[in-house]
Sequence to fold (329 residues):
Amino acid sequence: MANQPTAEDRLIDRRGVLRTGAALAAAGPALLHAAHAEAQPRPRGVSPMTIIDAQVQAYAANTPERPWRSVPNWPPHVTGDEMVAAMDKVGVDGAIYISPFTMYQYDASYAVEVQKAHPDKFALVKPVNPDDPAVADVIADWKKTQGTVGIRIIMTTESKRAPDDPGFDRILRAAVRNDFPVNVLFSGNIDAGTALIDRHPDVRFIIDHLAIRQPSVPPAPAEPWADLPKVLELAKRKNAVIKVTGACTLAREPYPFPDIWDPLARVFDAWGFDRCLWGTDWTRAFAVVNYEQSVEPFLKTDRLTDTERATLMGGACAKAYGWSPKKAL
Fold:
């Protein structure tokens, strides 16, 4: 089971990667700083609110010393320093750093190194292995590691795991013992994910990416919000919050992606802003939208009040993870 592909893996159009890979690699980390003509840098200190990105994924280059498990259509490297530079450019104060399963599977050693170098910028979440009989000890050790705020499980259709999977049961019992929230990815598998949440009412779940399949290459699917009714029904589960991460990748209209706001308004109404965590899901979203374009629409839209924006873009995340970055003066 440990080598089953995830939604991140499945969503990569391999033929598209072959056609565009050379261009993407050439552009590489430069796209961290490439903004749409209308997207303007937003220096730190402009806003009194603390902005927290609920999901970023940094990683080193693919080398024999630190090899990748698979090679997605992402930049050749986005190091911790490069991620911090991109965040600083648009005024993002901190981020929940999800160790990227695509590259490193269950090894979060690079994330730990980055957090030690930038302790005021990142809090850490790592994927844990349901097939590991000692996973409870792994979680207990992770709790003792500097900067850790949660764990992650993957329950996509490709994982072929049921809500009563014994590995999930071990993980979720350990999460409760260690007072960790559990990030869960079940985009495209919402019925099973809902059953998992109902089975474990004492677990604090943080649902990845709106629970909606998102593209890793453009364009967005013809009906990107087809699962929205299930997402709204899921809001009745009070032991869950939802990450509004990667939402810009679901737009069929160009920047600043005005067509995302009507479906998002339904999400906000169902879940409440205090249970919605904004984020970019960078660098998974690399081939669809750059970092600034993932941030600016939420900062500039008139569809949010200042209070709603502050909650969505930082307050709800700080509450869910019990962590907030140290904001520069």
Remarks:
- The chain has one domain: 7-37+48-321.
- Confidence is low (pLDDT under 50) at residues 1-46.
